[in-house]
Amino acid sequence: MASKIATYSWGSSIDGQLGIGNCGGQTRQEVAKEVTTLSGQRVQSIGCGKHHTGIVMADGTLYMCGANNKGQLGQDRNQFRPVQVSALETVVIKQVACGDDHTLAVSDRGQVLGWGRNDRGQCGLATGDVENKPRPRILKHLASYQFVKVCCGSLHSMALTRDGRLFAWGDNTYGQLGIGSLVTNYTDRPTELTSLRGVPLVRVSCGGYHSFALTVSGSVFGWGKNDVGQLGLGNKENKSYPTLLRNMRSQMVKHIACGQEHTAMLTADGGVFMFGQGSEGQLGHGSNYNEVNPRKVIDLMGSDITQLTCGKHHTLVLEGSKGRLYAFGQGIHGQLGQNESRSCSNPLRVPGLWVPHGSIKEQSVSKGCVVKCIYAGGHHCFCTVTDAAENPELPLDFRECTPHQEPTCLTEDLIKELSTTVPNVSPPPEVRKTAEVVFSSAACLNASFLKANNGHYCCGKSNHGVDLDTARTAFQHLADKNMILEILAGIINASLVPSLPESPPDVEALRLYLLLMECPVLSRPQERWCRHTISQIGSALCGLKGAAAKILAHWWSKLQPRHLNRILTVHKDGIQAILQVGSFRQLCPEDQSFLDICMRVLDKLSKVSNKFFVISRGGGGVSQRFKYDLESHLNV
């Protein structure tokens, strides 16, 4: 019988990576075995490397086991059972990731620490040396950012910030850093992937020498090595910059996992797509062929898969509602958990005491354990479980958001916190800090107030995915908060607008142009800070080029009249506020520029909105009647 809370492992144990002890020199564990050192202890998450394992406990302590030949355990020697990393006793760890021979961790303060093998700069310390680092060190070059997620490839690393920026470092032989192959073949200095700036990323994953990123609405970007089709692009060309998998946008991808040279994707309906190297059967397609395009695993159709993870040459999935674990791929190290060392190209049930959640309450079984989460790496696997008879925890669902491991977004709760600030008193530090993160980040705003029930998926020309009515209702809490609005305007003008590109990398990066129009920060045209904000956003909007400009125009053409009218009102009221101060010839250059930008926005609006509006008594659209009114004021 399992403990109330327990951790199981199986697969290669040659270096102690299973944490089950030396076992008399046994090099593999072919069936799931409890890690007794962790019995009764609540595990938060696990990171599996090639020959080592990191285990984060619920209290933030970090335990490690396995090989330590490059210092990857942060200890003095190999460990066959989990041992706490003493150098991190005073640090609260939230997440750990393991590469071939290096380790990364994220602290509760959002700091990234690295240690282990460093010959390709994979520890990211930006010191210029390539010596191994046997003790955890903070990546000082990233000290000004707060991180929520790290991941490791064989020799490279990536990290995602709270405000949606993605950094990469380490080996770049195949372009796996996403910064261009001509820049460098490796770097120990974390470098931002500016090509994805503004795109609302929620998942990142590293394979052996390839990388993936997933957006909040299911857009998939891959880059790096592609010799066996592990990027799923229909070819075998390496990519040194993030490249969109256009054929997956409509599949509603929720999670991505990478093996050494294969990739797995989990969709909203519980389907699994696999591609890349298939020589060990790790794609689950019943063959040993490589696949250059994402292909659905037929044997798992009809199963509601809720978790998936990849080892070096094997794949592990969980059907949470039925408590079933499946594994496929290489099995010579016992990593398929089949009580024998053989590979298989079709999904096999992993034997064990696994039962569905609630099965004992329903009296369908008398004992067993509920799998909470699965992990894989190298040639080994782990899973955490709870006793089915002891009010077990629900299994995690990788299709749902991961608390504290995704960038921050704007919510009604945050807006309410801002609105409850005492008049003429600055918001509490933590609230203001969160507001600064969100309103300075295009990625955060582009992930905010999205349509419910996956309505924001399949984002494109016909669907922007933003719930503008919900956003408008939430923003009403700030309608009379002049001081808060001025603070937000300052953040938008200083940090957000300068970061907006003329040609955003993906359609999801255009959403903020709709969202910000609903914000009352644009509703005080008599205030110079408001006019400056309208001008800045309008200038960025008018500067959009090519497909981005066309898509935004098409979105406008499909907006409800109340939302189109809001865009009109913002700019019309701004112009009228300026005209109240005197004649056009008396305006300062800044106000003249403001008028010009407002008119340019209205001109764009008129081309898609004439059929919706009558501006004043019986006549014309935006570019007609309102222009006549303006001309009488401007004396043009």
Write a compact overview of the structure shown.
This protein is an alpha+beta fold and 636 residues long. Helix content is 21%, strand content 27%.
Largest sheet: 4 strands, antiparallel
Structural class: alpha+beta
Low-confidence stretches: 611-636
How many helices? Answer: 11
Radius of gyration: 27 Å
Separation, N- and C-terminal Cα atoms:
87 Å
Q: CATH superfamily membership of the largest domain, which one? A: Regulator of chromosome condensation 1/beta-lactamase-inhibitor protein II
Tell me, what is the CATH class of the largest domain? Answer: Mainly Beta
Q: Total strand count, please?
A: 28
Whole-number tally of structural domains = 2
CATH arch. level architecture of the largest domain: 7 Propeller
Report the principal-axis shape: elongated
Q: What is the beta-strand fraction?
A: 25-35%
- Please state the average pLDDT score: 92
For the biggest β-sheet, the strand order reads 2-1-28-27
Helix content: 10-25%
CATH topology of the largest domain: Methylamine Dehydrogenase, Chain H
